[in-house]
Amino acid sequence: MRIINESLCDSNISVIIGKDALAELEELKDKKVALFYSQKIDPSKVKSHLKNFIEVPIIDGEEAKDIHYALKLAKILFENGFDRGDYVIALGGGTVTDVVGFVASIYMRGINLINIPTTLLGMVDASIGGKTGVNFENVKNVLGTFYQPSMIISDLLFLDTLPFEEIKKGLAEVIKYGLVLDKELYDFLAMNKEKIFSKDEEALEEIIYKSTLDKLSVVKADERETKGIRIVLNFGHTIGHAIEAGSNFSVPHGYAISVGMVCEAKMAEEVGYAEEGVVEDVTWILSQYELPLTVDALNAKIDLEKAMSAITKDKKVRGGIVMMPFPTRIGDWKKVDVPIETLKGFAEQCLR
Ligand SMILES: NC(=O)c1ccc[n+]([C@@H]2O[C@H](COP(=O)([O-])OP(=O)(O)OC[C@H]3O[C@@H](n4cnc5c(N)ncnc54)[C@H](O)[C@@H]3O)[C@@H](O)[C@H]2O)c1
């Protein structure tokens, strides 16, 4: 089991990773808790550590990330007399931690939050970093807050039931950390594909631990995304988001960013920021993990107009310039200001 203790701005966060990480919930024995859990997850192992709690099964998936649904969850807290000293647990994938985190952040201006992610993507990305969000008017994450959980419990037990496709979607984010932040992680991924694909516990614990450290170090340096550091987490995401939007969100996020990383690495190489060989390393590692490299491999129709419009409306565009993180060599990156028209030109080439 690995434990990380980190302090971010005004909050202390403990992350516990491993089999039996749930045992850390013992410290909630004398607390009042609202356990919000995906109705697709068996909550019994979590409940066995709690005494004074209400349990609330909720839907998951993008449907759950709806402002009206979030308000229903807040109403449950209100009707059950929860106050700021009490605790909320979010048990589920990234959609659950996003919506429940959002509710926890607005309820009485913030109630204690514990994330228990149950997908690999949740463990390495969505549950960490304090961004919460719900969708509004068909735009993803347009309403949201920065709000840190006090504890994140990544218990490998939940990955036992997670389908292979969901593991691969999470691996796309793990590979991202390796490519732009962590050469050691890249090397570990390069050598341990069989173990990771067979859900070997030590290997999974290692990649979740390293990814968590990578994400926390970036978030610590730029918690509110104001210093141009947190953008590194967006590697592959600018073109990835365009693919998601162009496919009417039929292409899963992990696959979209996989293709996005290939396109953005090519762009970095063409404009002279990436060392020779980076594109080969990016495509090699993604193909090892059976992730798509091209739009054709996605088997989806991409509406170029919608994709380009998503780029124009990207939250990161300022005055016709997009700040992009380009890989320079494996495990390293550089912030580059790219004119939106240049980006659109590259993206169009890549998505055709
Ligand atoms: N807040 C952030 O910083 C951040 C970062 C990345 C992604 N996200 C958000 O995360 C969401 C995606 O997260 P996700 O991929 O976990 O999606 P998800 O919550 O929809 O879960 C994916 C699928 O896995 C199922 N599932 C969950 N846990 C399971 C388990 N243990 N066993 C079997 N099935 C299980 C779910 O029912 C669902 O069908 C998106 O909404 C995205 O915007 C947020």
UniProtKB/TrEMBL annotation:
Q: Where is the 3-dehydroquinate synthase N-terminal domain?
A: 57-168
Q: Which residues are in the 3-dehydroquinate synthase C-terminal domain?
A: 170-317
> Annotated Gene Ontology MF terms?
3-dehydroquinate synthase activity; metal ion binding; nucleotide binding
Reaction equation(s) it catalyzes: 7-phospho-2-dehydro-3-deoxy-D-arabino-heptonate = 3-dehydroquinate + phosphate
Q: Which residues bind NAD(+)?
A: T118, T119, K131, K140, F158, L159, D160, T161
Q: Tell me which InterPro entries the record gives.
A: Dehydroquinate_synthase, DHQ_synth_AroB, DHQ_synth_fam, DHQS/DOIS_N, DHQS_C
What is the required cofactor set for this protein?
Co(2+); Zn(2+); NAD(+)
Q: Quick check: keyword Lipid biosynthesis in the entry?
A: no
Q: How is the cofactor bound?
A: Binds 1 divalent metal cation per subunit. Can use either Co(2+) or Zn(2+).
Q: What is its EC number?
A: 4.2.3.4
Which amino acid positions bind Zn(2+), per UniProt? E173, H237, H253
Q: In which pathway does it act?
A: Metabolic intermediate biosynthesis; chorismate biosynthesis; chorismate from D-erythrose 4-phosphate and phosphoenolpyruvate: step 2/7
Where found, per UniProt?
Cytoplasm
* Pfam families (alphabetical): DHQ_synthase, DHQS_C
Describe the family membership recorded for this protein in Swiss-Prot or TrEMBL: Belongs to the sugar phosphate cyclases superfamily. Dehydroquinate synthase family.
NCBIfam families attached to this UniProt entry: aroB
Q: What does this protein do?
A: Catalyzes the conversion of 3-deoxy-D-arabino-heptulosonate 7-phosphate (DAHP) to dehydroquinate (DHQ).
* Classification via PANTHER family: 3-DEHYDROQUINATE SYNTHASE
Q: Please identify the protein, giving its name as recorded.
A: 3-dehydroquinate synthase
Q: What species was this sequence derived from? A: Sulfurisphaera javensis
Protein encoded by which gene: aroB
